[in-house]
Amino acid sequence: MKISVIGCGPAGATAAQYLARAGHRVTLFEEHSRAGEPVQCTGVLTGEFRDLVEEHPDFITNIIRKVRVHFPGGRSILIRLKRPEIIVNRRLLDEYLAELALQEGVELRVGCKVVDVGKGGKDILVRSQGKEERIEQDVLIGADGAGSIVAKRSGLWQGREFLHGVQARVEMDIEADCYHVYLGFCSEFFAWAVPEEEGIARVGLATRKKGYQEFERFCKVLKVKKVMEQQGGPIPVYKSGMRRCRGRVFLVGDAACQIKNTTGGGIIPSLVCGRALARAVDEGRSYENEWRRSIGTDLWLHYVLNRMLDRFSRKDFVLLGMMLDSSGVRKVLRKESRERPLWLLVKLVLRKP
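The structure corresponding to this sequence follows.
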């Protein structure tokens, strides 16, 4: 089959890689001049990433061995991770994944913006260097991010919600192997400080409204010395009832809102769902069944946990900090991955019934 994949992020590159490996003719379209631009990602990846992608030193900027969770009122707990997490350079990661796709025979066209989708996804209109070209395909995959043009033009843009992420690379005093999470600092989500190296961090927060004032306040709390680069962008909110395919058109990754709502993380879901989509298209299986079997329960639990935390008051976060501040709970948090919230919840309930 002739397959067009729109967007050269983790979801698109992974789907393209595995579809080409299965023998399909795959073209990968990227709007920007190179993969990984613009940067809108914190780049924290759990140990499960190593099970999906072979680590490459070029895109790894730091190794995280500790997490400190801060609560209102000054309480914080330190969690030492059994399986270290990694911080990646998102641009270099995307370039690496694109290279894996190219090695399987994928054609990559950069600087190509999809401006329209034909009826039923039978063709796309691509603009490049001021010229427009209409391209036909048997299958169209939208991996074109939170503002997916494929979703909008294919009748798959329904009832979407977004958080507004504000992030910057800054100079500040921070340990190189410990990232910080601030619960209850801003409404609807949390704030973070993630070290790239000693003295350099990615700090940010996300809210339903544009949170620039809260971000400035957060920088003052952290005693940021210098803002080096502004980053951030919309974070789609996962909903289980959304349609992610119609006929020959499929959505994956941020375009499909396949996001962990508790953290806003989308790289690992994109890698998992990209593989699931490739299997479904190649073998004629149900895409919905494939990705839900792989990661659907986990994304739903992240959705439920986020809805619960949305209702927390400042006092609730204080009480949560008191409940979690015990050696037994810290032991559970150390061992269990946040990629698998079900087992984490079960063990926490057994510790704190």
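The longest helix spans residues 287-310.
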